[in-house]
Design brief:
single chain; about 0% strand
Length: about 375
């Protein structure tokens, strides 16, 4: 087993780090931002003013990058910026403005006098200028601006997230609970995604929490899946706990319907069902009320007719049943007898169907059933 020990000498000279740096911002700050922070804290006792050039020289960083890093720590209230030496007073600004205005007016007056002394412009040159202006105007009139596409909403940057953490206790609590649900620390992308779902998709924090627990129950803890659910629920205005519970029950009910259908068809479940499979199963079982036995009959008809399983063909059979009020195996037999009697009355008897009817046989022949118009 490895053990870690500290060098005794280095602990003779230490400096303090605010607790909020670790408690609130260490997950949001980047490596460069932390380097700048540590250098500033170490040199906090310097009497002279500290500039971005000083920090850049010490850390081998570009002063522009140093300023970007400092903007983060300033935004969360850890430091303040002192521009006193570089600012200009209001009186100085005003005098500069007046000076510019006076200079412009004087120049305009001089130019005006010069214009009066200048000779008239040559007529041919003036005509060329007028023609060119006409061409430009014609091009502008015929110009069609390109179509603009609506850009996808931008996620909040780390500074916005940090500000929200310090100002909104509910959001901070959501991040803490999310870490417990995911079982790992949150990244910049995770935090900004959760804030985007709340601010841009309009979902309350408690609804976002339900999404997280549902994703965990589905074993889909990727932030891309959570973001997609947030966008979908936001568009559907699933903005209360009651609506969220109803949506989750609907999702589970549809998935259960496909499990029943796939078992009736004898299919082996591998991976997540497709959107069409979910929609068909929900239609057959949850909305129309067909039993697994009826789904099995539709499956056998499909296999005997086409030689292979075809989801659209099965849906066509069940859709035809629904249109004709056929809900049970007995309804199929009665429909077959009715059509058989109709055929006999027209002189087109079906010997096999007639024999089955006269013998009182209660079994059904799928090969015969598939020939009736209800399966066309």
């Amino acid at each position: 087993m490895e053990y870690y020990t500290t060098g005794a000498g280095i602990w003779g000279n230490v400096f303090a780090v605010p607790s909020d740096v670790v408690d609130k911002y260490i997950k949001l700050a980047g490596a460069a931002q932390l380097k700048v922070l540590l250098w500033l804290l170490r040199n906090n006792g310097r009497r002279q003013q500290i500039t971005a050039n000083d920090i850049g020289a010490a850390l081998n960083m570009n002063p522009i990058d140093v300023k970007d890093c400092m903007e983060f720590w300033i935004s969360v209230g850890l430091f303040s910026k002192n521009d006193k030496g570089n600012t200009v007073s209001d009186s100085q600004n005003k005098s500069n403005v007046n000076y510019i205005q006076q200079t412009d007016e004087g120049s305009y007056s001089d130019n005006k006098n010069n214009e009066q002394e200048m000779p008239d412009v040559n007529t041919e040159v003036q005509n060329n200028i007028d023609n060119k202006l006409t061409e430009i105007k014609s091009d502008m009139d015929s110009y069609v601006p390109p179509k603009r596409t609506i850009a996808k909403a931008q996620k909040p940057d780390p500074i916005e997230v940090a500000q929200r953490i310090s100002q909104d206790e509910s959001f901070s609590a959501l991040l803490t609970e999310t870490e417990q649900i995911l079982g790992r620390p949150l990244t910049h992308n995770d935090s900004s995604t959760l804030l985007m779902i709340h601010d841009q998709d309009g979902l309350p924090y408690e609804v976002i929490t339900m999404i997280l627990y549902f994703a965990k129950s589905e074993n889909k803890l990727k932030m891309s899946y959570i973001e997609a659910l947030g966008r979908e629920w936001g568009s559907a205005e699933i903005d209360t706990l009651e609506k969220a519970e109803e949506r989750i029950n609907d999702i589970l009910s549809r998935k259960t319907a496909w499990s029943i259908a796939s078992e009736a068809f004898g299919l082996k479940l591998s991976g997540s069902p497709s959107k069409r499979q979910i929609e068909y199963a929900d239609l057959w079982i949850n909305r129309w009320g067909y039993t697994p036995e009826m789904l099995r009959i539709a499956y056998e008809i499909c296999m005997n007719s086409r030689g292979e399983f075809n989801l659209s063909y099965v849906n066509g059979i069940i859709k035809k049943w629904h249109a004709n009020g056929i809900m049970t195996e007995e309804d199929i037999k009665n429909k077959a007898k009715t059509q058989d009697n109709s055929s006999q009355s027209k002189g087109g008897s079906n010997n096999k169907s007639s024999k089955n009817s006269n013998d009182g046989d209660t079994s059904y022949d799928i090969n015969a059933f598939k020939n009736f118009d209800i399966f066309d």
